[in-house]
Specification:
- The protein is α/β, with parallel strands linked by helices.
- Helices cover 40% and strands 16% of the residues.
- The strands form 6 sheets. Strands 2-3-4-5-6-8-13-15 form an 8-stranded parallel beta barrel, surrounded by 4 helices. Strands 7-9-10 form a 3-stranded mixed β-sheet, covered by helices on one side.
- Strand 11 and strand 12 form a beta hairpin.
- Helix 8 packs antiparallel against helix 9, helix 9 runs parallel beside helix 10 and helix 13 packs parallel to helix 14.
- Bound molecules: 6-O-phosphono-beta-D-glucopyranose.
């Protein structure tokens, strides 16, 4: 075995409730912003496929969990949908949702699969969005109650909790770049949402620790290392600014209890500081995570700004740096993301050296392409060797970082079964297992699924 991982390493995959459960309007669940957005603007979704078309885990969780076991999983992350558990955002708990999530958690444990549970995966209840989403303290309070409800209902069995998945994404996609509902373009409001999210996170961590349950709580962050085009000080400064906005804006407060001073300074200079109460900062300072989930898909390459921004254009982080398309970079052209495996190592070493070597695991990494059907072999399953190579190349760097002391405890692939991917719907298939939406949600294991099973069972892999 060339690449061996530590004992008790978590091998598994990640998914989320809204992307896999289906049953969107069943058993009391109420709409999230995704259901609403699809209703009013279906053309914003790839092939106009909406959130009701997921792989139907709500009905097939038993078979799916059996498949996870078959493919070597000892852990699996999914999320509890706020809209299912507390359909109005606050108030009544939905007993059918409690039954469903209890069944899922129990079934995972019965199959030797550790449940990792996310509380919020981009899925704001519509009723809460109408109150202002995380710009509103009322919604922050409602989120904390939702979190507490989950801890009390399921915390006897769930030992690994995540307050948010990729909290920067709803901020940038929903309030800056017109990629998610509510399609606002307003930097000040984006800052307010980011602050409200950080506060909601810290208060949920506080509540979890007060309950003294036997488990740990963290957050899942998508870390995108910022690489300067060159060592020219102007490029290096630009990369530093991008790092502040897109990584350290959440990484620093959740691990160190403080926002980076130079980020605060930039925001103050442009007059975008959020509204807050003094005690908020103390809550953020006091409530640090127990461990971190790291999603890694793509790096960010940055150069100094070439042109002055239009003074009338809405302020964007990109007013302070330019993204840089390095010539001949390796791309997943279906997603428009660069593939740069060494960033996996760089993230780990950064956490080791600059974040007290805190415990973490890779909570998402993966690759999806359009038209996977072209890889179907004579036996009728998809031979996705591109995905196997992608995992190997990233795992090699992860392995090196662990050998050099990174405190990494697991690796989860995105994702288990092809899932509905927000505005990209089913464009790019990410799963170890194919779902045939046209044929009663039939599942077919891909080559990567068989490879993953060997990887997990051997706790490592060889090079060919
Ligand atoms: C991560 C999210 O950002 O990337 C997932 O946590 C998402 O929810 C995944 O599905 C893949 O991204 P996309 O946009 O291709 O679906």
């Amino acid at each position: 075995m060339k690449y061996v991982f530590p004992q008790n390493f978590f091998w598994g995959s990640a998914a989320s409730g809204p992307q896999m459960e289906g049953a969107a309007a069943v058993d009391g669940r109420k709409p999230s912003i995704w259901d609403h957005w699809y209703n009013i603007e279906p053309e914003r979704f790839f092939d106009q496929v909406g959130p009701e078309n997921t792989s139907n885990f709500y009905y097939q969780y038993k078979e799916d969990i059996a498949l996870m076991k078959q493919l070597g999983h000892n852990s699996f992350r999914t999320s509890i949908q706020w809209t299912r558990l507390i359909p109005d955002g606050v108030g009544e708990v939905n007993p059918k949702a409690v039954t469903f999530y209890n069944h899922v958690i129990d079934e995972l444990i019965a199959n030797g699969i550790e449940p990792f549970i996310t509380l919020y995966h981009f899925d704001m209840p519509l009723s809460m969005q109408e109150k202002g989403g995380f710009e509103s303290r009322e919604v922050v309070n409602a989120y904390v109650l939702f979190a507490e409800t989950c801890f009390k209902l399921f915390g006897d069995r769930v030992k690994y909790w995540f307050t948010f998945n990729e909290p920067i994404v709803p901020v940038e996609a929903g309030y800056l770049y017109d990629m998610h509902y509510p399609n606002v373009v307003d930097f000040k409001r984006a800052v307010q949402v980011a602050f409200g999210t950080t506060l909601a996170h810290a208060r949920a961590v506080e509540r979890y620790h007060e309950l003294a349950l036997d488990g740990q709580i963290g957050i899942v962050l998508n870390l995108t290392p910022s690489y300067p085009r060159s060592q020219n000080p102007a490029d290096v400064k630009a990369a530093h600014i991008a790092d502040l906005f897109f990584n350290r804006s959440f990484l620093d407060p959740v691990t160190k209890g403080e926002f980076p001073a130079d980020l605060v300074e930039i925001i103050r200079e442009h007059d975008f500081l959020p509204e807050y109460q003094l005690n908020d900062l103390e809550i953020i300072r006091q409530n640090k995570i127990d461990f971190l989930g790291v999603n890694y898909y793509q790096p960010r390459r940055v150069k100094a700004k070439e042109n002055l921004p239009n003074p009338e254009a809405p302020f964007m982080p990109e007013h302070l740096f330019d993204n840089y398309a390095m010539p001949n970079r390796k791309m997943n052209r279906y997603r428009g993301w660069e593939i740069y495996e060494k960033a996996m190592y760089d993230i780990c070493i950064n956490l080791r050296d600059n974040y007290h070597n805190l415990p973490f695991y890779i909570s998402e990494n993966g690759m999806g392409v359009e038209g996977e059907d072209r890889y179907r072999n004579e036996e009728g399953f998809i031979d996705d060797s591109y995905r196997i190579n992608f995992m190997k190349e990233h795992l090699k760097w992860l392995n090196k970082a662990i050998l050099e002391g990174a405190n990494c405890h697991g690796y989860h692939l995105w994702t288990f079964i092809d899932c509905w991917s927000w505005a990209n719907a089913y464009k790019n298939r990410y799963g170890l297992v194919e779902v045939d939406l046209a044929n009663h949600y039939k599942r077919i294991i891909k080559s990567s699924g068989y490879w993953y099973k060997d990887l997990a069972q051997n706790n490592g892999f060889c090079i060919d």
